[in-house]
Amino acid sequence: MMKIRLLLLFFIFSFSCLYAEDGSKLWLRYTPVSKEMAKNRSITADAKNPVAVQAQHELATFWKGQSIDLKLDKKLTHLKDGFKITGHRDRIKVTAHEPAGLLYAAYHLLQLQETDQQVLNLNVEEIPSFDIRMLNHWDNLDRTVERGYAGYSIWQWDDLPKLLSPRYEAYARANASIGINATVINNVNASPQILSSEYLLKLKGLSDVFRRYGIKVYLSVNFSSPKILGGTSDSDPLNPQVILWWRNKVKEIYSVIPDFGGFLVKANSEGQPGPQDYGRTHAQGANMLAAILKPYQGLVMWRAFVYNPSTEDRAKQAYQEFVPLDGQFSDNVIIQIKNGPIDFQPREPFNALFGALKKSHEMVEFQITQEYLGFSNHLVYLAPLFKETLDRDTYADGKGSTVARLTDGTLRPAGKTAIAAVANIGDDTNWTGHHFAQANWYAYGRLSWNHQLASEQIAEEWIAMTFSRDKQFIAAVKEMMMTSREAAVNYMMPLGLHHIFAFDHHYGPEPWGDQKGGRPDWMPWYYHQADTIGVGFDRTASGSNAISQYSPHVANIYGDILLCPDQYLLWFHHVPWHYTMKSGLSLWDELCYQYDLGVKQVRDMQKVWDRLENQVDQQRFAEVQSKLKIQAKDAVWWKDACLLYFQTYSKRPIPYDIERPVHELEDLKKIKLNMKHHN
Amino acid sequence: MMKIRLLLLFFIFSFSCLYAEDGSKLWLRYTPVSKEMAKNRSITADAKNPVAVQAQHELATFWKGQSIDLKLDKKLTHLKDGFKITGHRDRIKVTAHEPAGLLYAAYHLLQLQETDQQVLNLNVEEIPSFDIRMLNHWDNLDRTVERGYAGYSIWQWDDLPKLLSPRYEAYARANASIGINATVINNVNASPQILSSEYLLKLKGLSDVFRRYGIKVYLSVNFSSPKILGGTSDSDPLNPQVILWWRNKVKEIYSVIPDFGGFLVKANSEGQPGPQDYGRTHAQGANMLAAILKPYQGLVMWRAFVYNPSTEDRAKQAYQEFVPLDGQFSDNVIIQIKNGPIDFQPREPFNALFGALKKSHEMVEFQITQEYLGFSNHLVYLAPLFKETLDRDTYADGKGSTVARLTDGTLRPAGKTAIAAVANIGDDTNWTGHHFAQANWYAYGRLSWNHQLASEQIAEEWIAMTFSRDKQFIAAVKEMMMTSREAAVNYMMPLGLHHIFAFDHHYGPEPWGDQKGGRPDWMPWYYHQADTIGVGFDRTASGSNAISQYSPHVANIYGDILLCPDQYLLWFHHVPWHYTMKSGLSLWDELCYQYDLGVKQVRDMQKVWDRLENQVDQQRFAEVQSKLKIQAKDAVWWKDACLLYFQTYSKRPIPYDIERPVHELEDLKKIKLNMKHHN
């Protein structure tokens, strides 16, 4: 009996550190300052702007340190919407050029507080890397989310504008806390309906909330909107009726939302309408809209993600389409370019358009939602993926022409600089489906604010604010996060393999994928090009010559099988199975070990997480544990599917020290998941 | 082009050693001797008995060595149906007391030839360990096979006796080649119909084939046959009408099958009728049949596998039922006792009945078909399991009272000694579903012939005759086979756990298994007794005291938690989770490592097999490889299910260096396989 009581006590003790947690708080877990403590310090602001008031409010509620004075200084234009913080033991002074700068400073101070950093002697100046730090929602008006894996859209259109979900403010606050100041509310595959007067009023409901957090609203627009919504005879950008319709519509928008940001346009791509439908160029289409938006300081983000079924390598098409138009785009058009030449793969080389457009404004588009990275089932920390593109040297303007410096205004003076990423946010309680997917939202925001931050530092901040400030805990979880993206590449498509996903839903492996009469550029075999000789897409001069789109320095490296980094090898080269890799292994063996490594890495992630059970609340522990199980099973699925499939070409044994497949290729081929683009 | 041709040549060469193989030949792959070679030697026989002729025929067809003379010698009674072989470079002399002895000698010589052993100087005397070496078929008359996993029954009742499948002779020859000389043709859950005149004539068709290979036919009989088939008022063994019916029926049987072996009876067990239905004892029931069979030298095998739903430990019931009857059974009754006290589990201690019946004839019943060992999906070499029981010292008649010596006539003079095993044979092309399950049929035969053979030697013989004589190949496959049973115990139920199988079909794990209103002794919780304190069935004096059924020496060891071998620990003891094992680990940790070891062992088996790809024909290689994949997946399933379930009691973490679960307990609980007893 004594024994049982002791055991009971033991259990109660072990679980005492656990409390209910659903992840809804994200990284914003400040606890209010005590009245006692608040008495001893003051938080003042010299501005009555709602954003400045919000800054003051956050600090008054949560700041546990010395007094703070918030000041706007219209002379400090160099700060943009950044801030300057100086301070000592008794008092901190925050200055900013914009009210939003004060708000960002407030969150900066709270972040220092929540991550146990010193605040007694501060001398900080932060100027954001990009002017426009933008989320792209692929949310449809029926509340499905294309490539969304965290439930339905958070925009409750039926209730808007009358009912405002408390989520809208929580969303705005979370974004502001990491510097995001722009949001494209709807899917790039846009319904014209979003431009209806009814929806513009709903949108006003949202933008009124967002404005207090310094966030501007943008819209994706359907290029056929004039014809569909306005009844014009066509949507030709040179048709005066069409132009008139747009002019009136823009006027209407700004009458409802005076600080409206502008349009995002996916035109003539994957079935979307565009200027080419009328024999006009992308430039003509974009410039028409830009001209109308210009008086309002509105912008056009024009997507470069265009490709068509043709004999030309898909990876080359955006470049071929846009480079000839270079110099023709208006000043308030920014070409929005996906980080890689294909489509948000686990790993891609940088898009050759970066730097190649010498006289056009460019911006990067990332994907936070994990369309090609295990949805919200796989833990994949994306900061290293984002950094990989941002830090890549294009050599477009000589050494040091990184994608970041080409797009942030450093190398090429620009009107407004911008960066965008497809959001992973839905109405799931924890916002992003996977608790660790919150880190990708966080990391994107932090990098859009300062692209020089290290992935490690961002991870540390996020872990400390989201889970625990314990140093060993942070170290363990950071290690897991930092491994995770390489793990995903390894178990999905190492060595430069790409787009061998199952058709349509892009979740599992389908390297054998083929559809009678389907577009080759939507078929996995198009991308891996496996045959009995080898595997990989020859994009050198002997192949598609996509390599020629890069600057000579880059082309020389990627185009030379001896110089090309392993991680891009099969992206640029068709490599024989027997080819000797830098490791000394044959390509086939190396491929096998990479897949196996991916599986091992996920299993190690499971071990790391399980060890932390007593340091995480029960709900989030169990939910992440459960997702890691799925990831571990999926990793084996990927490994078996890819190795067994490629083995039918390589005819080589899987190295015998590797854990053997547990699936039959024929069984895996039968798997047809009933998954939609969205959930 | 040159390159492609070279590659083609390479492929053709690599596959040149592979040929189509379906496993139908079992271990009988002798190739006929050339005419040239046959000319230079003679095979003579001094007997015209069909069995002796068969012996002569086998040698004449396949023997590639010197001349052989086969002789019967009626004086050599000590040989029983064994043989003596003496010989030198030019001539071999085989003598036997029975014609079957000549046939066994022929297969012995062919085995020496096929396993590359010397035959130039022979001096061999082999006397079988048991007189009756028996297979029990659990085949139903509708051709389903209870607990059969190799297709339908090989007995094609509709076609018998007119059409004789060539499989009957192949079956008889395979059995004779390993010394099996008796077969119970039908399920112990017997249909009375088997005793109908129609079926006896069908049976004659089979027995006529088997006789040429020295094999006697036995029948399982339903104790209610007189009433059901003969229309008697009941089946009371003391009812003169009943006795008369049996007498006439036995007379009829012997008129059709003069060398009929006798009856196997499952009575008053799991719903089968028996003498207790009329207030008679097992002894009265058995003796009635024995008296009728005695004039024909017929035998009664009476099964001790009886238990009833009661508060008494199921493991004790057979002992309690039969020991009080000791001394009452007729001389031609043999009590057929399953190797363990429960039911063919992956590991059981020996059945306490062995030796406890001092004045009754006893025989062991093994199970070759893998009811509790992964069906025909898992590679589990059973010779070590058989040996484990045979070699176990019961101390019933003092030290050295092994189960083998108690039942083979060494320690206790017996009329006829016997051994039985439930067959794993079906109409699958490869006979046993899994190519390696053939080894269990082989091993059982070899051990019934000579229970002192080592498992390793039997494996070597079987591998050499079934796959390859290559020494490295044999060593690798033998290692895999020798590990396999421990692997299965480890991933299914280590440390003495038992019967935590899914209800009814006994394939997967279901330690949580429970059925409202179901018999407790058919529920896994009855056997594992897990609670927050610990796990295991207390069968010591403080529990069910099943331990008291063993001789004091054995009871002292198994009953003492400090002395009890780990492999039986949870069979006999309820052990606290924190209990320190011999390894120094806690019980919980030890359990975790055992399950994990099981998974690793199966993965290692996969590696061994895959390495042998070029040394095995393609079909058998691929089929075994595929089964090993299932086994590897199942092992993880077992590990996850049992550890996650027991963890709900132990409340302890799975040691962190162990590969983490990939399943959710709640998902596993939902698995309901639609499997029948038979296929």
From TrEMBL, chains A, B:
Pfam families on file: Glyco_hydro_67C, Glyco_hydro_67M
Family affiliation: Belongs to the glycosyl hydrolase 67 family.
GO biological process, one term: xylan catabolic process
Active site, renumbered: 270, 343, 371
Record flagged with keyword RNA-binding: no
Keyword set includes Oxidoreductase: no
Domain Glycosyl hydrolase family 67 catalytic: 115-431
Keywords carried by this UniProt record: Carbohydrate metabolism, Glycosidase, Hydrolase, Polysaccharide degradation, Xylan degradation
Protein name according to UniProt: AguA19
GO molecular function, one term: alpha-glucuronidase activity
Listed GO CC annotations: extracellular region
Natural source organism: Sphingobacterium sp. TN19
InterPro entries according to UniProt: A-glucoronidase_C_sf, GH, Glyco_hydro_67_aGlcAse, Glyco_hydro_67_C, Glyco_hydro_67_cat, Hex-like_dom2
Domain Glycosyl hydrolase family 67 C-terminal: 432-657
